[in-house]
Design brief:
The structure is a single chain. The model has no long low-confidence stretch (mean pLDDT 93). This protein folds into 3 domains: 3-84, Arc Repressor Mutant, subunit A (Orthogonal Bundle), CATH 1.10.10.10; 89-159 and 267-295, 3-Layer(aba) Sandwich (D-Maltodextrin-Binding Protein, domain 2), CATH 3.40.190.10; 162-265, Periplasmic binding protein-like II (D-Maltodextrin-Binding Protein, domain 2). The protein has 10 helices and 9 strands. The protein starts with a helix and ends in a 9-residue tail after the last helix. It is an alpha/beta fold and 304 residues long. The longest helix is centred in the first third of the chain and has 28 residues, at 59-86. The strands form 2 sheets. Strands 1, 2, 3, 4, 7, 8 and 9 form a 7-stranded mixed sheet that branches. A two-stranded parallel ribbon has the order 5-6. Helix 1 (3-15) crosses helix 4 (59-86). It has helices at 3-15, 18-25, 29-43, 59-86, 98-101, 105-115, 128-137, 202-211, 226-234, 279-295, and strands at residues 90-96, 119-125, 142-145, 154-169, 190-193, 219-222, 240-243, 254-258, 265-273. The protein binds benzoic acid. Benzoic acid is lined by residues 100, 103-105, 108, 144, 159-160, 245, 268, 288.
């Protein structure tokens, strides 16, 4: 059994479809089916139920899937960490969700660059779920996200819990003369949430905050990204619930108000490959805590 067999099986199990898996792997479908067949023969067990649509894993297949994912992630980790050890020039590739760009991320990156000028820093916008995959593929070294998804190969540190605010069109009745809004006051509004995909996303976090109070907005519109959500608010198409730091995206036609409900918060998370304790990551974490201390931001310190 080779890593290739694991990759092929995981693609089929992820996609629950041979055609999509073959496309994702950039191979034709017949060789993919043959490899899965070979794998089943070698193991002497059936991994995928025969003649069932949509495709379903057997109990052995489900067991194999979980462990194959772990082994592939470990292989990717081994590759990137070995490359890192062997590399002369040092690098740090960062994945981030858009809202962190309007908060502390630019300051954190500037300070890191100034202090560690020999490290090549790069940035990519990715949703939290995309960050998990990018970490496992070795495409990024650290992700700053918001969704608390569990993955056995990823170490996650909650940096802080950020308050949520509501973005309202400038002429909205709630935007005038108020210093805060209660979630219940938003139930008659059209709520604009983002990102539409991949899920779970920040959109689900916002909907969960509302459903915890049994609040169902009268209409929910899903949009691709934060900037579109705020643009739609400016066009008076609805209201959006966003992290406090989004107020850094100033617009004269949008008003941001704090949400009074205490549970209306969103975490800022630091995600890395489980075994990665590189100097670059330690330095990045130290700078984040340093900036929190300077800004008087509450947090619980964790070591990598
Ligand atoms: C923050 O706003 O707390 C933050 C943003 C990006 C990276 C780290 C922390």
């Amino acid at each position: 059994m080779e890593l290739r067999h694991l990759r092929y099986f995981v693609a089929v199990a992820d996609e629950r479809n041979y055609t999509r898996a073959a496309e994702r792997l950039h191979i034709a479908q017949p060789p993919l089916s043959r490899q899965i067949q070979q794998l089943e023969e070698e193991l002497g067990v059936v991994l995928i139920e025969k003649g069932v649509r949509p495709l379903r894993l057997t109990d052995a297949g489900t067991f194999f899937y979980a462990h194959a994912q772990e082994l592939l992630a470990k292989a990717a980790e081994l590759k990137t960490m070995t490359q890192r050890v062997g590399k002369i020039e040092r690098s740090l590739s960062i994945g981030f969700v858009a809202s962190t760009l309007y908060g502390l991320l630019p300051q954190i990156v500037r300070r890191f660059r100034a202090r560690f000028a020999d490290v090549d820093v790069s940035l990519q916008e990715l949703t939290t779920m995309q960050q998990i995959q990018a970490l496992k593929d070795g495409a990024i070294d650290v992700g700053f996200g918001r969704v608390k998804s569990e993955d056995p190969n990823i170490r996650r540190i909650v940096l802080r819990e950020e308050r949520l605010v509501v973005a309202l069109p400038m002429e909205h009745p709630l935007a005038n003369g108020r210093d805060q809004v209660k979630l219940v006051e938003l139930q008659t509004e059209c709520l604009i949430v983002y990102p539409k995909a991949p899920r779970p996303s920040f959109a689900d976090q916002v909907l969960a905050v509302l459903s915890e109070r049994a609040i169902a907005p009268y209409k929910v519109v899903e949009v691709r990204e934060l900037q579109i959500a705020i643009g739609m608010v400016a066009a008076a198409q609805g209201v959006a619930i966003v992290p406090d730091s989004v107020q850094g995206m100033k617009r004269s036609d949008v008003v941001y108000l704090p949400i009074a409900d205490r549970h209306a918060i969103s975490p800022v998370m630091f995600s890395v490959r489980k075994l990665d304790r590189s100097e670059e990551l330690q330095n990045m974490l130290a700078i984040i805590y340093e900036i929190y201390d300077e800004a008087g931001i509450a947090y619980v310190r964790e070591a990598l």
